[in-house]
Known about the structure:
Radius of gyration: 18 Å
Largest sheet: 3 strands, parallel
Strand content: 25-35%
Distance between the termini: 37 Å
Helix content: 40-55%
Shape: elongated
Strand order of the largest sheet: 1-5-6
Number of strands: 8
Order of helices and strands: EHHEEEHEHEHEEH
Structural class: alpha/beta
Amino acid sequence: LFKNTVFIDDNLSLPQLYDMIGELKMNRRKDKEIVRLLKEEFEVDAEGIEFSRYLGDYVLSLTLKDTSIPVDFLGDGAKLAILISSILLYFDGKGIALIEEPEVHEHPGGIYTVLNFAFKIAKEKGIQFFITTHSSDVINYSLRIAKKLGLKTQLVYLRRVNGRVNSVNLTEDNVSLLKEIGMDLRAIDVL
């Protein structure tokens, strides 16, 4: 069941990411898809991803028309997009991706871009997402992007009652109604 399952959080080390991208580059040339998505979503003049020497070490760099930039020098949104897309492209087929709090260290506009980026790959490859969040932006963007791409969504609110975790399924109509009355989804448990 968990053969094609990946948990995406901030514990993935750079050497692990480098190994993954190296394999994507050498064996499958999936790095071209990462570059294509970067161009679409971030409007950068990206031409490729390569390993280059910087201050004596090999680093992952984004190659542009006239120069290359170490990935570590990019903004958090672009780095997160490269991380998530690399992991999702690594799947050979359908799979499950569990993404924990993609909003951490992200600008609200960057969150939208990264989610849009990830949902496009998910649709192309048949990957099912489970996203945990405390962000109403992530909820709203996910619903909007999924609708735009024709993806099915299920919003589940988890709450602890008397030491037991219960789930409440929310529909898009519920979410719209709560927003209309000024209710923040993150505070639903006080209702």
